[in-house]
Amino acid sequence: MAIKFKALSYVYNKDMPYAHKALDDISLEITEGVITAIIGETGSGKSTLVEHLNALLLPTSGSLEILDYELVADKKIRFLKPLRKDVGLVFQFSEYQLFEETILKDVAFGPLNFGYSQEEATQRAKDALKLLNIPEELYNSSPLEISGGQKRRVAIAGIIACDPKIIVLDEPTAGLDPKGAKQLIELFVDMNRTLHKTVILVTHDNEMVYNYADETVLLHQGKVAYHGLTLKLFNDKNMIKEYDLLEPQIVTFRNQLKEKGFKLSDEARTLEKLAEEIKRQIK
Amino acid sequence: MSLIEVKNVSYAYNENSVAIDDVSFDLEEGTYTTIIGHNGSGKSTLAKMMAGLLEIQKGTITINGLQVNVDNINKIRQDLGIVFQNPDNQFIGSTVRDDIAFGLENKLVASEEMEAIIGEYVAKVGLSDYLDYEPQNLSGGQKQRVAIAGIMAMKPKIIIFDEATSMLDPKGKKEIKQLMSQLSDNHITVISITHDIEEVLQSDECIVLNKGKLFMKDKPEKVFADAEKLRKINLDIPFAMQVKEVFRNHKIKLKANDLKGMADELWQLNSKR
Fold this sequence. Notes:
Largest interface: A-B, 42 and 45 residues
Structural class of chain A: alpha/beta
Shape of chain B: globular
Strand content of chain A: 15-25%
CATH superfamily of the largest domain in chain B: P-loop containing nucleotide triphosphate hydrolases
Helix content of chain B: 25-40%
Structural class of chain B: alpha/beta
Oligomer: heterodimer
Radius of gyration of chain A: 20 Å
Strand order of the largest sheet of chain B: 6-7-8-3-9-10
CATH class of the domain at 31-55 and 79-230 in chain A: Alpha Beta
Number of helices of chain A: 11
Order of helices and strands of chain A: EEEHEEHEHHHEHEHEEHHHH
């Protein structure tokens, strides 16, 4: 089993005058069981890349191996449903996709669709809602009547309830308040650590990437500019400069401390860890 | 008289949920105000009422001496522009030039004057070389800048930004934040609804909403003085202040407010050892 892009290209409006190559000969193996962030400027191909993972888009050329499935250019696929159960994709602003009469029905829709019995589907929906901190008294309310942050969590519960092996999230925390954003990302970390889900995160928030993502894929103009450990990327001054990356603030601060003369490792992701390292040198 | 006066304003979408609960404050001309608050705190509801996009149920909002209501709204909107969250939902023209011209046409500006006005405002947002670009060939930050140029060309006194940077990449965010500061330097009253705690530092004043109520209205450094108070209502403090806090917990008191200054202080402590 793997998540392997093999010389994959994707062209929007192929054979039209305004054809646009969004992914250009991508070869990439995303590590299973870890949290991988996909970063890059607007238009670098991030969303196009992840929309291949559950066959919303099919390669124009090349192929993608994912779990036990393979997507090949110009080849019809017969495993759409099982693939989409195994790979849960949460879109940007997923709260706009809620549609059922009640929150519980909305979340149970996925599992029902993938063949769980009514009873099982309802139970799965309840478990997922609980995981996402949606209070029980809201289960029978309309999903359109709750706050934006709650809607986002209900939409994510809909994916979690299908018990996917791979969870793909496109900008899951955009527009959430600081606490809501932190709770959500820590939920995915928890699902990764305890349930061993592969988590793939598309985001512009480099602070979040640095704090939580084990590995990072940097896309630039439809090509992979970097794939490897997150800490290594953001502690590489040349990469930061070459790709005009916004440096996580803790890295900026650590570099200033190093310039002063402190001897610090690049391992600390949190201020607490960094402060401990410094304190050991001061006292 | 202040440019914007909000008096005892309340709003409820339905009987069980009060979105804005008896909120009052004044905003002075030329100030840059950020509005922060947890999801569902009422930020956007408040902004929509100021812009006349939601009818005020209780209380009054007065802008430039005129009460916001159906009779006055067209007059008020001549002084007020709003930039929304999604850059793709506010591009009307087929090119940058057309998009800015749209507002001017509505204002019945003579066509021979238009080119000069358009030129002036695309220059202000740094897009002079992009006049004939179509929206699909612009980045999110660039589209937001076109929207801002179009609004600036209307010469408003007030511009409201409703989470205008939340869908942008880091570069786009930076561009728009710089532009907001510039607008404020040019005496335009800027009101920015945001989840970006770092942005608050560049504003003159910050309004904090909690469950529809006014929780605080003060200078950023005052607002961020009590981290726990903010965390209780789902907010947080900027990075530099978190650094101070973490070291304070380790019994190291830092005086500086910027990262470089704090690095200096820590190194001095290290040298004194």
